[in-house]
Design brief:
- This protein is α/β, with parallel strands linked by helices.
- Helices cover about 40% and strands about 20% of the residues.
- The protein has helices spanning about 25-30, 40-50, 60-70, 85-100, 145-150, 165-180, 190-210, 215-225, 230-235, 275-290, 295-310, 320-330; strands at about 5-10, 15-20, 35-40, 55-60, 75-80, 100-105, 115-120, 125-130, 150-160, 185-190, 210-215, 240-245, 250-255, 260-265.
- β9, α6 and β10 (about 185-190) form a beta-alpha-beta unit.
- The two termini are about 30 Å apart.
């Protein structure tokens, strides 16, 4: 376990986000579930895209956003995710490598196009996601570089990866390799609807294979099927080493055994777009953790990074996060 080339390797869906503003009535007319991520097919992606107003394209994907944030903080990140050898695939690869992230997953030469996520941001800054997974569904165990996983302090897996069957097997392989190498495994629950689809599998993962769990209030309550956050908190605290639970404007709670930290939300001048808030929180937290910082500091770092992200459109940082953290935390 001497080779630690990377702080974190993220494994997830390689997606290009298409972001635009939308009204609540637009969501209603198009039968879109507000605040949720819904999987759609290629035809639906084309149909909904044709109805979008002006939009901005930028690389996204939950785990990829986390690794992008980690790199902006000065961390050593790697990413595994499947794209097609098309225009959006080239955009995704260029964007993540330009951040200094190691990304060598071979692009598919046939099959579905690179994934895209249509993101509709309503005036209350809530985001509604329509995701065409495209090439992501073909991420499989053969795409997992065992040496890469073994060389990272933490392997970070996004819950969304549990939807495509082959990707699920890649997920299991990566977790197994990380465990065998004596590394930590982190999981983001991603979305309450994702938890609803895979609750049994997620519970088994959290109890037996996950060291660090990231979830928001709705996700962890869905996981344990309880009506309030405190009940969920009591359930999760014995199931993994660390649980980092975010609560929007209420801040966050970090639990690790008997250790509990309740943290206030970081100030935000104006909430513009909540896309990527959880991804960014994980970036700050994992950067702190892999640098040997205490859990309260890790939680504060997550909050500072998330506050920057929700202050503008898009899920990637607008400014170097290392500079921001130096200014805000000294």
């Amino acid at each position: 376990m001497t080779d630690t080339r990377f702080d974190v390797v993220g494994i997830g869906n390689a997606i290009v986000d298409v972001l635009g503003h939308a009204s609540d009535s637009f969501l209603d007319v198009n039968d879109l579930t507000k605040g949720a991520m819904t999987l759609i097919d290629a035809d639906a992606a084309e149909r909904i895209y044709s109805r979008m107003g002006p939009a901005v394209e930028c690389s996204g994907g939950s785990a990829a956003n986390t690794i992008a944030g980690l790199a902006s903080l000065g961390g050593r990140g790697a990413f595994v995710g499947k794209v097609r050898d098309d225009q959006l695939g080239a955009v995704f690869g260029h964007d993540i490598r330009a951040l200094g992230v190691h990304f060598e997953t071979p692009a598919a030469t046939d099959g579905p196009a690179t994934a895209r996520c249509l993101v509709f941001v309503t005036p209350d800054a809530q985001r509604t996601l329509q995701t065409y997974l495209g090439a992501c569904v073909n991420l499989g165990p053969d795409d997992i570089d065992e040496d890469l996983v073994a060389a990272a302090k933490v392997t970070y897996l996004e819950g969304y990866l549990w939807d495509p069957p082959q990707a699920k097997e890649a997920f299991r392989k990566a977790a197994r390799v990380a465990e065998q190498a004596g590394r930590q495994v982190a999981l983001s629950l991603s979305d309450p609807f994702c938890v609803d689809r895979h609750r049994g599998d997620f519970l088994e993962l959290v109890e037996n294979h996950v060291d660090i769990l990231f979830a928001n209030e709705d996700e962890v309550m869905s996981l344990y099927q309880v009506a309030d956050f405190d009940a969920a908190l009591q359930r999760v605290r014995g199931h993994c080493q660390i649980a980092a639970l975010t609560r929007s404007e209420k801040g966050a709670v970090i639990v690790a055994g008997d250790e509990v930290h309740v943290l206030d939300a970081e100030p935000v001048e104006k909430v513009v777009d909540t896309t990527g808030a959880g991804d960014s929180y994980a970036a700050g937290f994992l950067w702190g953790l892999t640098q040997g910082m205490d859990l309260a500091t890790c939680g504060r770092l997550g909050g500072v990074v998330a506050a920057e992200i929700i202050g503008h459109m898009g899920a990637r940082p607008d400014i170097p996060l290392r500079q921001l953290v130096a200014e805000r935390m000294g």
